[in-house]
Amino acid sequence: MSVRKELLLKDEECERLSKVRDQLGQELEELTASLFQEAHKMVHEANTKQATAEKQLREALGKIDVLQAEVQALKTLVLSSPTSPVGELPSVGGGGVKTPFRKGHSRNKSTSSAILGTQPDPSATQPIVRECREVGGFRGVSKAVQAETSLGANCCHVQVDNQLFSDFKTWKEEPVLDRSCCFLERVYREDIYPCLTFSKSEVR
């Protein structure tokens, strides 16, 4: 009896262990499947991110190429286009060369043609026009200075009147609208008044 009872207990123990084994095997399979699914999901997300990054990189490189082409085109356009009306300025250097005839009122020589003196760096005269435009009280400050700046930027041999440049720097430090100022007096006398003086009486 004792042996049979012991065998029954052994059978029950084996059955219980078999159930535990089957349960652990099922859990292991589920865990393995879950790990494979998670790994597959991570790989898919990584591939998607890589593809998106590569696409964005190609788009960025394409935009860079387009921008570089536009910049190059703008540079070419700027270099090929005249930046100042040189043809309308008085001829420089003498030699008997006459400017082309233009219909209408022609402007007299003014501070724009006062080019006696030393030759300044064109980059040093460019801030003059910008400084003049920033002064709100006098918007029409000397087209002569602008003409000298444009002419100096395009023609290396052009020279600027040192006295005019000195008067302008003095006026720039303390801008006034008084015509007794040397700079403004010269602007009125050589730039404004000649434009308001017409040789034909019917246009006065």
How is the secondary structure organized here?
Blueprint: H1 2-80, H2 122-134, H3 143-154, H4 162-173, H5 182-195
Helix pairs in contact: 2-3, 4-5
Number of strands: 0
DSSP summary: helix tally: 5
Low-pLDDT runs: 84-110, 112-120, 122-142
Q: What is the H-and-E element order?
A: HHHHH
Terminus-to-terminus distance: 146 Å
What percentage of the residues does DSSP assign to strands (E)? under 5%
Q: What's the gyration radius in Å?
A: 44 Å
Name the shape in a single word: rod-shaped
Task: Provide mean pLDDT, rounded.
Answer: 72
Structural class: mainly alpha
Question: What is the helical fraction, as a range of percent?
Answer: 55-70%
What does the largest sheet look like? none
Protein name: Chromosome undetermined SCAF9919, whole genome shotgun sequence
Region (Disordered): 83-123
Biased composition (Polar residues): 109-123
Coiled coil: 14-77
Structure report:
- With 204 residues, the protein is mainly α.
- α4 crosses α5.
Briefly, what is this?
Helices cover 64% and strands 0% of the residues. By secondary structure, the protein is mainly α.
Entry keywords:
0% strand; mainly alpha; 204 residues
